[in-house]
Amino acid sequence: MRIYTRGGDQGKTGLIGGVRRYKDDARVEAYGSVDEAGAFIGLAVSQLDAGRDADIMDLLIAAQQRLWDVGADLAAANPENYAYRTPADAAAELEPHIDRYNEESEQVTKFVLRGGVQPSAGLHAACTVVRRAERRVVSLMQQESIHPPTLQYLNRLSDLLFVLARTVNARANKSDIVYQNSTDVFRN
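Structure (tokenized):
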């Protein structure tokens, strides 16, 4: 297989369904940001302790798999001829994990500075990239229709990554650093 096709040399790329769009098109920006989010999750996985954090690694690799589905769904320019891959309950499937891992950290009431031990910082960075992907999908949905579970999944995935970053810090006995000027923002 040849990696280069020269098809994008004029600034356009092919979407699922054969449509060609400019590489800065809202749809391309959306699925490109999802691809970037998956790469940042992969970077975070590489920083985790395989012994202590194997459960988190497995969860994150599953999230990367799901992000390929999300990206494919966003790359489908002709939804009437496409079978979506992201299930309606994809976001809901993350919620038990969010609840479970949230229990491993101290209760948070204020904004948390992103950082801590290196794997936690990596997860925080991945969280912000997922949030950017979510913003790109919101921009896209103001112009064209999207498959709603893609946006819902990204929203919930960013929550999961935030919780996992805090969990990794807790497992490493590293306290979160709260934003000094924060009022109480998280409540039960």
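The beta strands are 12-14, 20-22. The longest strand covers residues 12-14.
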